[in-house]
Design goal:
about 350 residues, alpha+beta, 6-stranded mixed β-sheet, homodimer
Chain lengths: ~350, ~350
């Protein structure tokens, strides 16, 4: 008998721990079990289902006291669709499991549900079921089933040494937006920060881009950034059994980010560009690898077609080469894997 | 703008309400959407997936302070498997979404997870994914995918006037067990109540029986009893557009039930056999209908093979005939549909 708590073990320790209780082998139609953004079930020779779930909890993942219910619903769906995007799949079906306090107003419910449904509809999916339970806080737990061709699917596990590493969009915006919203009254924030606030409240799951990327069959691995670049790149490298070099100077961020950091730090120095970009999390951007031998023409075309910003940020290294951040002065720094951990004692 | 709360609307009002936000038509491979125990997705000409989710919350659906963690996990899985059983399907895949307090001990987690996995394994399913979130109370939200042949599936909607109504097992045991556990110290309870306690803590999902029933193609409708006989029979009748006559004297219950009611009522008269059997809920027995023209030989054979008690309890009536309970003195009483409602103000 140990007397550890979940806070001691951490979220990823918990994931390792539960594997003890699972059977050693999976049924042959389970292409992929625990360990990626989604599990994969083979349906036929030319079709797989990818399945994922993610629980969002009031005060932990969103704040019902100062966020529009429509925005809460839409964001919860986006977060889940991002996992479907990370596999290069098309969202199809959702089950909506809601824990709701009995004092919640029906108007709040209506608007939150509308936000969920609108975002799902936008990406071609449909709600086919769900359930309600009475809880003290609002809990949104979504189960999404996506569809893909087995030959055109992205996983975390195929990156090879020498592969070029790319990311969509800008990093750190969501974390900055979240900090701004948590520290200041929204009406007091300069309008220039709207893009950061929006990145936090209304992330765009990279469904269209990722699907085309998967169909083009040029990416060796992919993951969506939910826990922060450092942590999710760590997951990709773990699954691909490789290491990596990231060029810090290449990491894409919005110009407003530095101004927001200054604003946030006026009272206390609580954050930095580096920490927001590397550890901030909830970017819901796609991190992916392309072999160096592959021409970038197709990638550029897909990015143009889907109006997606892509940036090359580093290169996959052989296993045991170490995971490093190359700073702008040319020196290397160890890239620590720490990002969002639901049970990390350092997280609010 | 209305100012109603969810407590005003109730769980089933909420289900009606959300339908406003859903598209009028479903994709052609969705055989059945919201409104049954599971949704049904067509996979091929000879295969469907049935999908369901159910959120169980500490202090609402179980009591982590006086229930073994293994029992909590096993029961949560049974409750979900019961929905798969209600469709006559075979459990295949589960995603386990857990909300856990950070102060929870790792031993508690281990035993609860083991309970979940053992019960799933027992019925042939496998965990393929899931996620963890930090919550104040333990929340177990399970997403199960089952498999069936499209020609051999049970739904709530096919009952016809004249059909015979059957139920598996005994009614009211679980509700009595739950009352005993909530009102008395377990060590103070007579050992004769063990079967009632067990019915509450370790319900058996009727997977084996229901699968054979579906394959035999003799049942016109089925539902599992989670909200209580009266409420779930109401759902079956609503979906089948019919009414019903239930013979109160035919309803099966354990002999220990009356003794337990007497024990519970020693201080205050808080319950009755009728309320436990009709409204108690959480029986997880199967309620189903068979046309009067069908010989009962096959049904008896299936019951024997799967060691399942079955009892004929009434008959389906034409729509607008009314829903009645025939009492033992021959008089009829309106069968009210009230059972478990997560937002009913009368529920603890």
């Amino acid at each position: 008998m140990t007397h550890k708590t979940l806070a001691d073990i951490g979220e990823f320790g918990l994931i390792e721990r539960l594997k003890r209780f699972l059977p050693g082998s999976l049924p042959e139609d389970v292409v992929l079990g625990i360990g990626d953004d989604c599990a994969i079930i083979r349906i036929s020779d030319d079709r797989v289902f990818v399945v994922t779930c993610d629980m969002q909890v009031d005060t932990v993942h969103f704040r019902s006291d100062h966020t529009e219910p429509y925005v809460i619903g839409r964001r919860a769906m986006s977060v889940n669709l991002s996992d479907i995007a990370a596999m290069g799949a098309t969202p199809r079906f959702a089950l909506v499991s809601l824990g709701l306090p009995e004092a919640l107003s029906s108007d709040f419910f209506d608007r939150m549900y509308q936000g969920l449904v609108d975002r799902l509809t936008e990406f071609g999916g449909v709600v086919i079921g769900g359930n309600f339970s009475r809880t003290d806080k609002i809990i949104i737990d979504l189960f999404i089933i996506g569809e893909a061709h087995p030959d055109h699917i992205l996983t975390r596990s195929g990156a090879q040494p020498g592969d070029r590493l790319f990311v969509t969009g800008c990093l750190g915006s969501s974390a900055a937006g979240q900090l701004l919203l948590s520290q200041f009254d929204r009406s007091a924030l300069p309008s220039t920060f709207a893009s950061l606030i929006n990145a936090h409240l209304n992330p765009t799951p990279r469904v269209a881009f990722a699907k085309k990327l998967a169909e083009a069959d040029i990416a060796t691995a992919a993951i969506d950034i939910s826990d922060g670049l450092a942590a999710d790149l760590g997951h990709l490298c773990d699954r691909s059994q490789c290491d990596v070099l990231v060029r810090y100077g290449a990491l894409p961020f919005l110009l407003e980010l530095d101004a927001a950091i200054e604003w946030i730090n006026q009272n206390n120095s609580i954050t930095s560009r580096e920490s927001l970009i590397l550890q901030g999390g909830e970017d819901y951007e796609l991190l992916f690898t392309i072999p160096a031998s592959v021409s970038l023409d197709t990638l550029r075309k897909i990015a143009n077609q889907t109006k997606t910003l892509i940036t090359e940020i580093g290169r996959i290294a052989p296993r045991d080469a170490g995971r490093f951040l190359e700073l702008t002065d040319g020196s290397n720094k160890t890239l620590s894997g720490s990002g969002w951990d639901h049970y990390s004692p350092n997280r609010a």
